[in-house]
Protein: DUF1153 domain-containing protein
Organism: Paracoccus onubensis
Amino acid sequence: MIKKNRPVTATLPDGRILTVADLPPPDTRWVASRKEIVVNAVAYELISKDEALKRYDLTEEEFDSWCRAMIDHGASALKVTFLQHYRK
């Protein structure tokens, strides 16, 4: 297996530093902030999308919906209480 050279850290637009160590555990309880971390980790190539799907037992559709929500409405759209609001 060929290991890709991936960044060790990523600097997010708001100045926060994200590392693989910041990823939630595989058996995490999903809250908006943890979803945001995973989406950013994939976007900034700290882990691949396939690794995220496998690690967190997510469907591609579920992960893609998180990405779309963040793009369209920001991280607050990942909150369960806002799902109905943003899906209209």
Summary: The chain has a mean pLDDT of 89. Residues 60-73 form the longest helix (14 residues). The longest strand covers residues 9-11. The beta strands are 9-11, 17-19.
